[in-house]
């Protein structure tokens, strides 16, 4: 069986990390970190340096792994992203069992559309049945209507536009994901997320705080205060 590798770019406030991971074994085939000037108050200090660092990391990865990166998943930092929640529902017209495709169909119903932000993911916080029962996994339950509180992560289009330009120049397709959501899903076990949990990530010049419940983030907050800025004050 041919292995599938996933390349991920983490944009920190003082360093950028590129990893290539084997999807089936969860082992790293490549990992490299380069420091750069970073960002503050939602702006990169030196976009040209940002480009040079990313180009260098991609070239090093391709040379080391003897492979061409076709697609790169870019983690959008909390300072360049936000969460939008919306209640959505589907009416089946009669009571019946909920199928997986029924829950999947709700994802795009409340998708936020704005010129300043791009929706990069949708995740359910909870589903609600006719009798008021709330659940994280509605598949198999019997109901006429299926409601959901959905969490949508959005990225600032100023961020995605800048990175789309970099992607075009180095010849790699970029896709985007929320770094805050990825951290919550990776660090916090399911049973804790089901009850609700607060996660704080203190970086070099930025801090992100998120309240997660179910598979989504109900609220998030990011601000330009971290290890470096606290030392300065």
Give a written overview of the molecule.
The chain is 25% helix and 45% strand. With 233 residues, the protein is of the alpha+beta class. It has a domain at 84-152: Dna Ligase, domain 1 (2-Layer Sandwich), CATH 3.30.1490.110. The model has no long low-confidence stretch (mean pLDDT 91).
In summary, what is this structure?
It contains six helices and 14 strands.
Labels describing this entry:
233 residues; alpha+beta; 5-stranded mixed β-sheet; 4-stranded antiparallel β-sheet; globular
Q: Please state roughly what percent of the residues sit in beta strands, choosing from under 5%, 5-15%, 15-25%, 25-35%, 35-45% or over 45%.
A: over 45%
Let me know the number of strands: 14
Query: In sequence order, what are the helices and strands, one letter per element?
Result: EEEEEHEEHEEEHEHHEEEH
CATH class of the domain at 84-152: Alpha Beta
Which strand order do you get reading across the main beta sheet? 3-2-1-6-11
**What do we call the CATH topology of the domain at 84-152?**
Dna Ligase, domain 1
- From the N-terminal CA to the C-terminal CA, the straight-line distance is 55 Å
SSE layout and pairing:
Blueprint: E1 5-11, E2 15-22, E3 28-35, E4 39-40, E5 43-44, H1 47-65, E6 71-76, E7 81-97, H2 100-104, E8 117-128, E9 134-135, E10 142-156, H3 157-170, E11 173-178, H4 179-187, H5 190-195, E12 197-202, E13 207-213, E14 216-223, H6 227-232
Parallel strand pairs: 1-6, 6-11
Antiparallel strand pairs: 1-2, 2-3, 4-5, 7-10, 8-9, 8-10, 12-13, 13-14
